[in-house]
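Letters spell out the chain; backbone shape is given numerically. Take this protein:
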Amino acid sequence: MSSTFKALSPFFARISTSATVGAQGLKAQFLIVFVSFIAMLIIALISFWFTPQWQSLILVASTGATITLVFMVPNSPLSQPYPLIMGHVTCATIGVSCAYLPVELYFSAAICVSVCILAMTLLKCMHPPGGATAMMPVIVGAQGVGGYYFVLFPVLLNMVLLLALSIACHRWLLKNEYPSRPLPKADPIHKHNDVSPLNRLGVSQSDLTSTLKEYDAYLDITEKDLASVIGKAQQKAYTRKFGEIRCSDIMSADVKTVEFGTQLEEAWAMLRLHKVKLLPVVDEQNKVIGIISLVDFLKRADLKNYDGFATRLTNFVKRDPKMNDNKPYQVGQIMASPAFTIHQDDLIASLVPLLSDKGLHHIPVVNDQQKLVGIVTQSDLIAALYSGAIAL
């Protein structure tokens, strides 16, 4: 019986993991549904209040399609602010113009769609729901939508409201980046004009840009997302090439730690004694709540010039019981929190972008209970890469 249970335990573990991931995904989907409901409700109410009484339309049907794009695929080039606004306004103008043409419906509809596609292509504002917006005046007639006022009410009003709500909902509720930002042209961590270390090798931003321009088709993906996909694929290729070396294989297990209430003078002495640049800050359960490094001391010691550098630093670190001021005396008062950690079972391939592009030099390693079990440094990763290269 016990042997059967052991044999089936991996199967049940996978089911449990899949259920957890599925529950997290379902929760995110419900949140998107709720946000979409609120956005549509607010757009309808505000449009009802601000649309002139002589205009019978307060909503354009394609708003529903745009909401789907903006909340379901916010990183898509089709969902960004410029194509969202410009695509709808351009197509609405074309749609009203085609509605005035003295031709039959099938001709005006065909002309409308083709001209919209051409205009959005030339103006670089491709937004498929705009085609539906253009068809509305063609179907019901120019007078039925209020003529060219249709472009302002309800089209432009609906889209401006939707854009404002989309930015607010993504940033405050969905915790997503919207609008999507382009790839940085310089290193944002080290503040210089070179690209980040990991991007100096392999596929560069200029490679992506030139390739996308040469590609004879429209790709619904941004350079940033494409770079992310390529980066993750490179990590998987590295893992396949160098084997499954995990963080627990290369980490230092004998980690010197401090607590929230540790005196700064004691923490400084530990940094100097053990010749390390960073100490994890842990709670009573040995869970990482922050880190304190040399940088944290230097930033808080008011070292604006080199005059009296050592004196200023010593005065900051050393506690004077006779003084009653607001100067911090405990580690918890100057530590960086929350601390970035990595799991002991993560492959070392996941360390490469963190230690090269994120500006991290030491990463605390935790177990399933989020308790500290070690620390990984750049030197540990270099040694692992060197050993792996030799083994090949």
About this structure: Residues 8-21 have pLDDT under 50 and may be disordered.
